[in-house]
Amino acid sequence: WSHTLPNSWALWFFKNERSRAWRENLQMVTRFDTVEDFWALYNNIKLPSKLSPGCDYALFRDGIEPMWEDSSNKRGGRWLVSLAKQLRHLDLDRLWLDTMLCLIGEGFGDYGPDVCGAVVNIRTKGDKIALWTREADSQASVMHIGRVYKERLGLSMKATIGYQAHADTATKSNSLARNKFVV
Ligand code: M7G
Description:
Layout: E1 4-14, E2 26-34, H1 35-42, E3 56-61, E4 77-82, H2 92-104, E5 115-121, E6 128-133, H3 139-153, E7 162-165, H4 166-171, E8 181-182
Antiparallel strand pairs: 1-2, 1-3, 3-5, 4-6, 4-7, 5-6, 7-8
The structure holds 7N-methyl-8-hydroguanosine-5'-diphosphate.
7N-methyl-8-hydroguanosine-5'-diphosphate binds next to loops.
């Protein structure tokens, strides 16, 4: 027998093939709903630090696609952790594992259902990890999730992370979208 998680999750992989549209480069790898299947998956795929630049992993609640357009994401936003280049070798894999464990362990209390999933972007200019939530305007929920997430990642008190609405990110392709909230 195995240990059933409170909810089912899906892992997605994005590989940047320039000839194809963004959406076509995104594929669901697998779904799981037990602790054992999570670790079997984790032990059989590359760590984020071993992926090529331009790739992403996304872990989302089963039924939510890891894109702005999904009905669960379109009014939402993300807590964004931007990593300095040198941190790929030091912190990236641990931060992504801790992010996934926060998700599947439902670590956000009453606001848990507002958490849609998380994404790790491997980028030459600096890797990113982001936690996506459902409603960018739900201040109490967004702030609670942000505080818990920052604590769970063990980020320094001095460090800050910002929250951006997807609607702002989607309309600013180059410069960074403004922060709606900061913790
Ligand atoms: P990114 O991969 O999130 O970050 O976005 P990066 O700039 O560090 O590589 C790169 C580009 O991918 C965006 O400018 C969009 O063209 C496309 N893209 C990213 N996301 C998350 C989405 C999405 O959810 N929907 C759509 N349609 N395009 C997206």
